[in-house]
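Exercise 7.
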Amino acid sequence: MNLFIGRELYPVNINEEIVKKELFCPFLPVVTYKDEEINKLVREISKREKGLSLYVFTRDVAWAKRTMQRMQFGGGCINEVCLHLMVKGVPFNGVGHSGMGAYHGEWGFREFTHPQTVLIGSTRFNLPMREHPYSKKWKGKMIQKNDIEFSLITNK
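Solution. The predicted structure, written as tokens, is:
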């Protein structure tokens, strides 16, 4: 027996439980709204945890871009779903509740590594002019050299 269950749930009210939670399942709840209700919709979505993805379907791509700029989410698509996860060279990321950070290629390398700078100084040689308190000799030379008010740096 072959059985297929549709993955789109349409139409869904924005206050239904399935819309309130981040989903990791093959269901896509579709919330419809009228153009004049967009401010209400953005306010409602902004009250919730930030989603991993945001998908907007419209004929007006400029409007979709403006709307998406008002919201926080990990990644998204206009008139598509999930394809942003497959684009080489761009990060897959979350924000807030859906996870902080990014991965995929270089983004993953940067996210999961922590470059550090470590300088090894000499134990045999040290310039007294580098360390506080400064002698009058070094104060004079540094003021002369850098033309600065050295007392601001040393608090004297």
